[in-house]
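Support request, please re-run this one:
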Amino acid sequence: MARRVAGKKAFITGAAQGLGAAFARKLASEGAKVSLADINVAGAAAVAAEINAAQGEGTAFAFPLDVTKEEQWIFALEEADAAMGGISVLVNNAGISRGGNIEELSFEDWKLVMGVNVDSVFLGTKHALKYLRQNQPGSIVNISSIAGLIAAHNTPVYNASKAAVWLLSKGIALHCAKQGLDVRSNSIHPTFIDTPILDPLRQRFGKEEAEAKLARQVPLGRIGEPDDIANAVLYLASDESRFMTAAELKLDGGISAM
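Re-run finished. Output below.
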């Protein structure tokens, strides 16, 4: 059986660890070439080397990228296009969070989170569309969060940034459709996933208690695994989702139904 994304060429941000690394491994295992971009280029290179050892040399490539810097986006995309022979999938995954309620949060942290979480999607899509046009059908997959659909009292900047990613994804989808492009844009909205983003909570309460506290908030009774999200990225990157655009996938264990 042909692999599900054979011939696809994916550019993934925040790929040195966590979800981004899981996405790269999953797409490569299903036949895609992958470019792993991260400000931690050594980490991205290590994951790329692991993928190449498993899938064959020339499957994965690593590039340095600060997703808030337009000039770095332009350079990284150009290099990835040359390395893979095109770009047909863009996965905007890079993201961070800062705590503090609306009175406690500093303006510096507000700007930092908005820059990494929202500016990156704008810059990445703006400059990747040149390559996606040349490699249709194409797919843009933006990693938002269930926190972009459901608010909390103590995470205003994370809520706002991920809500912006959600609606920006729809606007991008409509733009591509209006242009007559066979390029889709969708967002994914995970809840708590077993990645390093949970480490501060684990350090505060201990791994077992931290994960139990989070699991109690999820109707399915557990936190998610990286592959739970990687499988959705695989679907959206593949031609199986050719009629899906401007949509959101909630991978939240049922939280949004409560």
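The chain has eight helices and seven strands. The chain has one domain: 9-248.
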